[in-house]
Design goal:
CATH topology of one domain in chain A: Rossmann fold
Number of strands of chain A: 12
Largest sheet of chain A: 8 strands, mixed
Order of helices and strands of chain A: HEEHEHHEHEHEHHEEEEHEHHE
Number of helices of chain A: 11
Structural class of chain B: alpha/beta
CATH superfamily of the largest domain in chain B: Pyruvate-ferredoxin oxidoreductase, PFOR, domain III
CATH class of the largest domain in chain B: Alpha Beta
Oligomer: heterodimer
Radius of gyration of chain A: 22 Å
CATH class of one domain in chain A: Alpha Beta
CATH architecture of the largest domain in chain B: 3-Layer(aba) Sandwich
Largest sheet of chain B: 7 strands, mixed
Strand order of the largest sheet of chain A: 2-1-3-4-6-5-11-7
Shape of chain A: globular
Number of domains of chain B: 4
Chain lengths: 333, 616
């Protein structure tokens, strides 16, 4: 197909953006518009589908076909759009509550099928639109309006959820990391099959400080690890710490800045087991990983579907009467 | 026609009702449907009623595991599968025990005498063998050692004992084909296709079928055979279809007429799964079949496909419809076309999952949050599932609205001959041309139908957003404006109300006015029509109408009902349509209500008609 030259501006909508001032969603909007422009498709081929929640307002703010649907069902609706017209670039915008709680089943099965959806899950660890109840990613013990004594729910780790389901593309980014997160989204855009990107995103009214520690220039290099395919797993302000896999057990090895010891693992995004281990890293024991955790090639659902159609031979142009006649039709005169 | 080697009298019958019954593992549904096809190909009109337990394999020989398949066929229009069978084929003692109460004295009972063992008799609750103790002396019992005969026919086949045992149903089928002078070819063809990969099984089934036929021909156990006169039907090409198959073919036809792809999203549920299975065979005909992870995903994927421009549909049964209902609200406010085929079963909850009912009417018409009108239609016979579903699809795209089609277990599993229509006989699915992109607004409306234009992803220049939030009239932008919401609510309501223009005048079976009008809807058509015909033949002052559009109701329905002194509404629920009629027309109809998982039959309707008219 012809490559269409569009820029991020072509995806900007004229509607007023109604997120709270300072919301992490503004940055993500910007990043996704850039990633979309890189896909090179004609404008009408883009469709953005969302459920319910703050993030799900997204379709109004990009100038494409959009469907702001019902709570939790974005993946299900998007699957119908993609399967009926595989040429479309179908983006699903969801949140931690929409995508992992009420919509968890559809998320899980979309990933299982490897259907070509670009799923971006905005993780602010709270139900924000309903004004502050605990979500499935709210950290254990957090006091919210629905958990005044602290939550007793073990939280989901969205990226690990996707890796565990053998999702063929899994990445995690942070809203404020413009270049890094845009790069992840560009790779997601280019991926065939299901792409799942978790973006940690602050919510000014409810989880304003949630990710501050990860953004603090003083600490962030010690608390975050950027994983990159083919590169050693190194982090730290002085790039002096590395991840070593001792069998299936991960350990942190401190070393003198400069040369990276050979024991330090080199990241392999095609390796599902490594992706599982790395996506489970949580502070304070380990740095929080960001980057592309998993990228694998596997035929997508829509490819398999239309390959079956091609294999049986398209008979759509047959006469209706032929089509309706079974093997045991009879003629009455 | 089979030539008999003996001079046995061949009687001509006008119609007959036969019930095959046996263990749910005995292949009763298969034998029944083969027999139905053979009668259809022989030129009879017919109606069938499969009646099987929810368990795939209930304990062998138990009363709860009895599966039945009833067929009525004859030389004139056969409207129901019959009330009381003339012939019962009981493949085991339990089948006899369960069905004996439904057959009249003097009827024929054909059994496999080999399976009337002490153990099997005990499971069926018999203390003595009814074939021997005289309890069946008022019936014409034909006891045949089918197991032994099957074994002997296959003694050199090399098949295992259990493989041989599975063939005995075809032995019985061979006997029945002889008895009713029916062609074997359709079943022989079926055997060839079915066992293409196991020639030894094909050979065995062929052999057993022929052996059964030859046995009946040669033995003196039968004193008569029957020939059903051909039914005078319109010329054309026919096939025997179940209601579910008919609905599936209607959806394919609708997509062809619309020149769009068909998208069918569905989740397996009894008794609707055959629609999914039938369509799954037609992927090559521009049909996208999507087996979703749940009922909600199924309807949502179909809504997504509708947004993307497909002729979209989903199918389900009561509990599944409950799950889909939130999404139907989305389809209503997004104003997207969608056909929902709801095959009703006994409820609530899992209820009687394989049995029939008409108890989702109120759920279909009213069961949504908010003011959420949509079109509801009901099919009246297996073949009418085609016409009604096709009409539902036409209305869905013409008015940009979801349409629910109510079928039920009785229609979906039952079958009747279906005349394959020619393209020229089918309705047109013409959509109004889209306005030029510069004049396009997502929620502008067609002057006549109030439908919004159908543009979606992939179409250049019509980029827009839709969704569940209230829309501003015309532009479709999000609107929280109080007056706009009321206006849009009324517009959506008016749009569905205008579908009344699609409804032809009510057709009255019988006189235009009089004492009693029977008002039916959906699957009771056959029973009501037959009962009213019989009542009128005896001089009773009764007429009938059958409603297909449940929402909106036909414009002249109230006027027609008021021309009769009394109105009777038979339905397989506790009075749902009666409640709708009361509220719409302030009438007080009489109810005839049955909620037993079994269809209302014509005798019950006739009995009620007599009771009402004799009370005058």
């Amino acid at each position: 197909m012809e490559h269409t030259k569009l820029t991020a501006k072509d995806f900007a909508s004229t509607l007023p953006v109604k997120w709270c001032p300072g919301c992490g969603d503004f940055a993500i909007l910007n990043q996704i518009q850039k990633a979309m422009a890189g896909m090179g498709l004609p404008h009408e081929k883009y469709t953005v589908i969302s459920g319910i929640g703050c993030s799900s307002r997204f379709p109004y703010y990009v100038n494409t076909y959009g469907f702001h649907s019902i709570h939790g069902r974005a993946c299900a609706i998007a699957s119908g759009v993609k399967l009926s017209n595989p040429e479309l670039a179908v983006w699903v915008i969801t949140g931690d509550g929409d995508g992992l709680s009420i919509g968890g089943n559809h998320m899980m099965h979309s990933i299982r099928r490897n259907i070509g959806l670009k799923i971006v899950l905005f993780n602010n660890r709270i139900y924000a639109l309903t004004k502050g109840q605990a979500s499935p990613t709210t950290l254990m013990g957090a006091k919210t309006k629905s958990s005044p004594m602290g939550t007793i729910d073990y939280p989901f780790n969205p990226a690990r959820f996707a890796v565990g389901l053998d999702c063929t593309f899994v990445a995690r980014g942070i809203d404020t990391d413009m270049a890094g997160t845009t790069a992840l989204l560009e790779r997601a855009a280019a991926h065939k099959g299901t792409a799942f990107v978790e973006i940690l995103q602050k919510c000014v009214p409810f989880t304003d400080k949630e990710f501050d520690v990860l953004k603090d220039p003083e600490n962030k290099d010690d608390l975050l690890i950027r994983v990159e395919h083919g590169k050693p797993l190194v982090f730290g302000k002085n790039r002096n710490k590395g991840i070593v896999f001792n069998g299936l057990k991960a350990e942190i090895l401190e070393f003198k800045s400069g040369g990276v010891p050979s024991e330090v693992a080199v990241y392999d995004e095609t390796n599902a087991e490594m992706a599982y281990l790395i996506s489970g890293f949580q502070p304070p024991e380990f740095p929080l990983p960001i980057g592309v955790f998993r990228s694998a090639e596997k035929p997508s659902y829509e490819e398999l579907y239309y390959a079956q159609v091609a294999a049986i031979g398209d008979t759509r142009d047959n006469e209706l009467e032929t089509l309706l006649s079974g093997p045991d039709a009879w003629e009455t005169k | 026609m089979i030539k008999s080697s003996k001079k046995i009298k061949v009687s001509e019958l006008a119609s007959i009702t036969i019930r095959f019954a046996g263990d749910s593992g005995d292949g009763i549904q298969l034998v029944g449907s083969q027999f139905a096809n053979a009668t259809a190909i022989a030129g009879n009109d017919l109606s069938t009623l499969p009646d099987y337990p929810a368990e795939i394999r209930a304990p062998a020989g138990s009363l709860g595991g009895v599966s039945g398949f009833q067929i009525s066929f004859g030389d004139e229009s056969v409207l129901t599968p019959g009330t009381r069978p003339d012939v019962l084929i009981a493949m085991n003692p339990a089948a006899l025990a369960v069905n004996i109460k439904n057959i009249d004295k003097g009827s024929v009972i054909i059994t496999n005498s080999d399976v009337f063992t002490p153990a099997a008799l005990e499971k069926a609750g018999y203390s003595a063998n009814p074939l021997e103790d005289g309890t069946l002396s008022n019936y014409r019992v034909i006891a045949i050692p089918v197991s032994a005969l099957t074994e002997s026919a296959l003694k050199d086949s090399g098949l295992t004992k259990s493989q041989i045992a599975k063939c005995k149903n075809f032995y019985m089928l061979g006997i029945m084909y002889w008895m009713y002078d029916l062609p074997l070819e359709p079943t022989l063809n079926w055997i060839n296709t079915k066992f293409k990969k196991s020639p030894e099984l094909a050979e065995a089934n062929r052999k057993v079928l022929m052996a059964g036929r030859n046995y009946a021909d040669a033995t003196e156990i039968f004193d008569a055979r029957f020939q059903i006169k051909k039914s005078p039907v319109a010329a054309g090409k026919y096939r025997n279809l179940t209601g579910n198959e008919a609905a599936a073919y209607a959806l394919i036809t609708a997509a062809k007429l619309l020149k769009r792809k068909l998208f069918y999203g569905s989740y397996p549920i009894t008794p609707a799964s055959e629609i999914l299975q039938t369509l799954a065979k037609h992927k090559a005909n521009d049909v996208v079949v999507y087996q979703a992870e749940d009922e909600i995903a199924a309807v949502c994927a179909s809504i997504g496909a509708s947004f993307a421009g497909c002729m979209s549909a989903t199918g389900t049964s009561g509990p599944g419809l409950s799950l889909k209902i939130e999404a139907l609200g989305l389809a209503v406010i997004a104003e997207l076309p969608l056909v929902v085929v709801n095959v009703q079963r006994g409820g609530p909850s899992t209820g009687l999952p394989t049995k029939t009912e008409q108890s989702d009417l109120l759920q279909a018409v009213y069961g949504r949050h908010g003011e959420s009108p949509l079109v509801v239609m009901a099919a009246s016979s297996p073949a009418d599932c085609f016409n009604t579903t096709l009409e539902a699809a036409r209305i869905a795209v013409k008015y940009m609205t979801p349409v629910i089609v109510l079928s039920n277990a009785y229609l979906s599993n039952g079958s009747e001959p279906f005349r394959i229509p020619k393209l020229s006989e089918l309705p047109k699915f013409a959509l109004p041309p889209l306005p030029e992109p510069e004049n396009y607004k997502p929620y502008m409306r067609d002057h006549d139908t109030l439908a919004r234009p159908w543009a979606g992803p992939g179409m250049k220049g019509y980029e827009h957003r839709t969704g569940g939030l209230e829309k501003a009239e015309g532009s479709g932008a999000i609107s929280y404006d109080a007056e706009n919401h009321e206006k849009m609510t009324k517009l959506r309501d008016e749009k569905v109300a205008r579908v009344v223009r699609e409804i032809p005048p009510v057709r009255i079976h019988g006189a235009e006015e009089g004492e009693l009008l029977v008002v039916g809807w959906g699957s009771t058509f056959g029973a009501i029509t037959q009962a009213v015909s019989e009542a009128r033949a005896t001089g009773l002052n009764v007429s009938a109408i059958h409603v297909r559009f449940m929402n909106p109701l036909p414009a002249d329905l109230g006027t027609v009902m008021r021309r009769f002194r009394k109105v009777l509404v038979p339905e397989e629920n506790t009075g749902q349509f009666r409640m709708m009629l009361r509220s719409a027309y302030a009438l007080e109809p009489i109810g005839l209500n049955k909620v037993q998982g079994q269809p209302l039959n014509s005798e019950e309707v006739l009995g009620k008609i007599k009771e009402i008219l004799r009370g005058n």
